[in-house]
Specification:
There is one protein chain. By secondary structure, the chain is mainly β. It is rod-shaped and about 170 Å long. It contains no helices and 29 strands.
Length: 301
Amino acid sequence: MGYSGTGATQCVDINECAAQTLACDPLVTCTNTTGTFTCGNCPAGYTGGGLSGCMDINECATANGGCDALTTCTNTPGTRTCSACPAGYMGTGATGCMNIDECANTPCQNGGMCVDGINAYACTCAAGYSGNTCETNINECANNPCQNGGTCADGVNAYTCSCVAGYSGSTCGTNINECSNNPCQNGGTCADGVNAYTCSCPGGFTGATCGTVAPSVKILLHCDANSTVLNTFSGSGCYGPVAAGGASYATLTGGLASITVWSGPNCTGCSYVINSNLNFCGAAFQGCGGLNDNVASVSIP
């Protein structure tokens, strides 16, 4: 074995490595030696021996073949391959995948806080803003917060109401009390309105604020036909009829609470004390035996 020929003719070394059927694994190197041969070691990625045969090692069977856990290991003859890193990562499957920081470019606007994800990011917006990148100023006027005709101006997480005359407050919900400064004079009673007020004046006063002394008012009386007509009257006096049997009148001067009127010839008859509030909703009478029909009506000249 290892030689050819005969001892008589000469023994010649056989090159086993040149034979058609090699004893060594095809992956190793066959080296012819005197009378025999040697086989090299199996290459990396294989187990066994060059003479007995080389068997491929499945690198993926242990620790994912050294590939990053996010990638796929694929066994190949003598080695393995790692798939690419998934979206949102940089690096390679063989060297390692690192998460890309999508917040690095500061995508969140208007003071929003960025939270990095996997191939994504999320913005936590500051108060008053919305949208994927906090790009939208929330319109706080959208729900029409301003009442009573107020005009809304949007701000950042706020709004401002411009109120129409007569209203106040952050939403124009308060009717301004125009009576708060006591505009009604001389004991007048104030009734608040919208951007207005109304004064109810006491007897003897008139005007928007009861600041004007009321003009004279005629109070019609049924008097004796023979009563003497007085040409002047300053609070008490006697007036005769316009015609016999007709109505006479006394003039209640503004500011007076009451007057006294006499009936009869030369004002010698009964006297009447006439009290009026000068708003002429009615009058009260005393004298001559009590209430009677001597006062027929009240009129404003």
